[in-house]
Write a structure and sequence with these properties.
The chain is of the alpha/beta class. It has helices spanning about 50-60, 120-130, 165, 175-190, 205-215, 235-245, 265, 280-295, 305-310, 315-325, 335-345, 345-355, 380-390, 400-405, 415-420, 425-430, 435-440, 450, 460-470, 470-480, 485, 490-500, 500-505, 510-530, and strands at about 10-15, 20-30, 60-70, 80, 90-95, 95-100, 115-120, 140, 145, 150, 155-160, 195-200, 220-230, 250-255, 300, 405-410.
Length: about 525
C-alpha cells in the first residue's frame, strides 16, 4: 500500500513487470517526463535483480523520487532513494511488514511503529555540524537511506550512485556552454505544471536560477521574492533589484523582523524525523509558508547548492589540483596567484601542499564517514572537498513549515547539474582564480555586472545575534535544564556563561545556540512520542 499527502500530491508510477513503484518527480535523461503511469523505457523482467533495476533508474532517469522495488520470487523488497536526496526515505520492519516513509503520520497505528529511542551519539554529531542532521537518523529504530543508495530489507544498504565515479569521467570540452543548457532543462522540468515562486537572495547562485527561470518558464512565476534583515550585512536588496531589473520582473521585498524564540514556535518543526533546522529562523519560515498559500504557488525555486556544485570553498587545495595536472611550473600561472590571494595562502605554502602525500584531503569532519566519500582517495584533493561539501548540502532538503505548504526545489542540486559539475576539474570550475569562476563565465550574459563581479556574500550573523539576545528568557531554561545538558552533550556551567548578553556581544556563538535549541525541542518531542504520548 502507498499513502501520499498534499498539498502538492506526488506522482506515482509503476515499474514494468509488476516490480514496484516510483514516487515523486521523475524525468528521462532527455529531460522529458514519462507520459503515462508506467516507467515505459525500462526493460525489467520479473527476475531482474533489484540492483539492476536501481542502476537502470539512476542511469536512465533523474528527479526527486523514491523507488519501491519488489524483490522478485526469492528476494526481499528494496527501496532506492534518488541521488539528489530531495525526497527523504526512512525504513523499518515491524511484524514482518516493510515500511518506507518520509514521516511517521499521526494516523499510523502504534502497532506499526518501530521501537524508537534517541541516538545520543548522532545527536552529538548534529550539535557539532548541521550537516550531520541529513545523515544517519538520530532516532534508533529507523534507518535513513543515503541518496543514491539501494536499501534491501534483511541485507542493508548498497551505494549505487557514486560521486567519485562521476568525477573520474572525461571532462566535457564545452562546459561553459553545457552549464546553462543543462540547468535550463532541469528548471523547466522541475517547475511542474503549476505556479512557482522564485527566491532572489542577491547572491550569485539565486541570480543564476532566477535567470534560468526567466529564460525557460517566465509565465509560470507568481512571485519573485527577496528576504532582507534590518542591518546592512543582511540586506542584499540592491543586488536583488539588479537581478529583477535585468529580467524586467517585479520584486517582492519581504522584511525579516527580529523576533524572540518560543517553545511553541520550535515545536512546530520538531515533529519531523529529522531536527527542524528551519526553527533557527522560524518567523521567516512562517512567512514563506503563508506566501505560498497566499500566492497559490505549488513550488518555490531557490539557489541553494550553488556554493557546492560551482565550488565556492576558499581552499588552497584548488591549486594543488592544478599543480598535479601541469607540474610545479604551474605555480607561477596567473590563476594560481589569484587563488593564493583568494584563499590568503602564500605560494610557498601551496608548493608545500603540492609535495605532500595524502589520500584523504576533504577535511570536512562532519561528513568524513559519509558513504559518498568511501572511494575518493585517488581523486584530486579539491575534488574530494567538493564531494564532501555536496554531502554537507543535503541538509537543505530537511522539511520546514514552507515545505509543508509547497514543494521547495533546488535546481542546482538536480542530478544532471551535479554530475556535470562533478565531471569538471575544480581548477576549471574556479577559472580566473575566482570562486564559481566557470559559472560566472557560463551565465555572464544573464547576470547584471554587480552580481557577476561581486566578491562579498550576505551575512546574517548580526540578525541571529539579535534573535538569540531577545530569546534568552526562553533559551536559558530550555538548554540549561534540558535533555542535552542532562546527557552531558552540553556543559551547564558553560551555558550559564554563554547565555548572557555580555557573552553574546563579545563571543557570538549564535548559530550553535540556535542549533542546540532546535535539537533540544526535537529530542523532547520524540522522547514524548516514544513513551506513547500521542502527537
Amino acid at each position: 500500500m502507498i499513502f501520499t499527502r498534499g498539498p502538492v500530491w506526488p506522482r506515482i508510477r509503476r515499474l514494468p513487470g509488476e516490480r514496484g513503484h516510483v514516487i515523486g518527480d521523475f524525468f528521462r535523461r532527455s529531460f522529458g517526463s514519462p507520459p503515462g503511469d508506467e516507467v515505459e523505457s525500462l526493460t525489467i523482467s520479473r527476475r531482474a535483480s533489484v540492483l539492476t533495476i536501481a542502476r537502470d533508474l539512476s542511469d536512465t532517469y533523474w528527479g526527486r523520487y523514491v523507488a519501491l522495488i519488489a524483490g522478485g520470487p526469492d528476494a526481499a523488497a528494496s527501496v532506492f532513494r534518488d541521488p539528489s536526496g530531495a525526497l527523504d526515505a526512512m525504513v523499518w520492519r515491524q511484524d514482518g511488514v516493510c515500511f518506507a516513509a518520509t514521516h511517521l503520520p499521526d494516523w499510523l497505528p502504534r502497532q506499526a511503529w518501530p521501537e524508537l529511542s534517541i541516538d545520543w551519539g548522532q545527536v552529538a554529531a548534529c550539535l557539532s555540524s548541521t550537516a550531520a542532521m541529513a545523515g544517519a537518523c538520530a532516532l534508533k529504530g529507523l534507518t535513513a537511506i543515503t541518496p543514491g543508495a539501494l536499501f534491501t530489507f534483511g541485507a542493508g544498504e548498497q551505494q549505487v550512485w557514486r560521486p567519485a565515479e562521476i568525477a573520474r569521467r572525461t571532462p566535457p570540452k564545452d562546459a561553459a556552454r553545457l552549464l546553462p543548457t543543462v540547468l535550463d532543462a532541469c528548471v523547466a522540468a522541475l517547475a511542474g505544471g503549476g505556479r512557482v515562486s522564485v527566491e532572489i537572495s542577491g547572491g550569485l547562485d539565486s541570480a543564476i536560477v532566477a535567470g534560468s527561470v526567466a529564460t525557460t518558464v517566465p509565465d509560470r512565476v507568481a512571485e519573485w521574492i527577496n528576504y532582507h534583515a534590518a542591518d546592512q550585512a543582511g540586506d542584499e536588496r540592491v543586488y536583488a533589484r539588479d537581478v529583477a531589473a535585468r529580467w524586467s520582473v517585479p520584486l517582492t521585498e519581504a522584511f525579516k523582523p527580529d523576533f524572540a524564540v518560543t517553545g511553541e514556535a520550535l515545536a512546530l518543526v520538531s515533529d519531523g524525523l529529522r531536527p527542524g533546522l528551519t526553527g533557527k529562523d522560524i518567523e521567516r519560515d512562517r512567512h514563506a509558508a503563508a506566501r505560498i498559500v497566499e500566492t497559490g504557488v505549488e513550488r518555490v525555486m531557490t539557489g541553494q547548492g550553488g556554493d557546492m556544485v560551482f565550488f565556492q570553498t576558499p581552499t588552497p587545495l584548488v591549486a594543488i589540483d592544478h599543480l598535479r595536472r601541469v607540474g610545479l611550473r604551474g605555480l607561477f600561472d596567473p590563476d594560481v596567484a589569484a587563488l593564493a590571494r583568494w584563499t590568503r595562502t602564500s605560494l610557498w605554502a601551496i608548493a608545500g601542499l603540492a609535495l605532500r602525500r595524502s589520500s584523504r584531503w576533504h577535511g570536512v569532519r562532519s561528513v568524513a564517514n559519509h558513504p559518498w566519500l568511501a572511494d575518493t582517495d585517488d581523486l584530486p584533493p579539491a575534488k574530494q572537498t567538493q564531494i564532501a561539501t555536496l554531502a554537507q548540502a543535503l541538509f537543505v532538503h530537511i522539511e520546514g513549515l514552507r515545505g509543508r505548504a509547497g514543494e521547495i526545489v533546488h535546481p542546482l542540486l538536480a542530478q544532471p547539474v551535479v554530475e556535470l559539475c562533478l565531471s569538471i576539474p575544480v581548477p576549471d570550475l574556479t577559472v580566473g582564480g575566482r570562486d564559481r569562476g566557470l559559472a560566472r563565465l557560463a551565465f555572464a550574459e544573464r547576470l547584471p555586472a554587480s552580481i557577476r563581479t561581486r566578491r562579498s556574500k550576505g551575512e546574517l550573523g548580526a540578525y541571529y545575534g539579535r534573535v538569540v539576545g531577545a530569546s534568552l528568557e526562553v533559551l536559558r531554561p530550555l538548554l540549561i535544564d534540558g535533555r542535552l545538558a542532562g546527557e552531558g552533550l552540553l556543559d551547564r556551567a558553560r551555558l550559564e556563561t554563554m547565555l548572557t548578553r555580555e557573552h553574546l556581544v563579545w563571543r557570538g556563538d549564535y548559530s550553535g545556540l540556535m542549533t542546540a535549541a532546535v535539537l533540544e525541542s526535537w529530542v523532547r518531542h520524540w522522547e514524548a512520542r516514544g513513551q506513547g504520548a500521542r502527537p
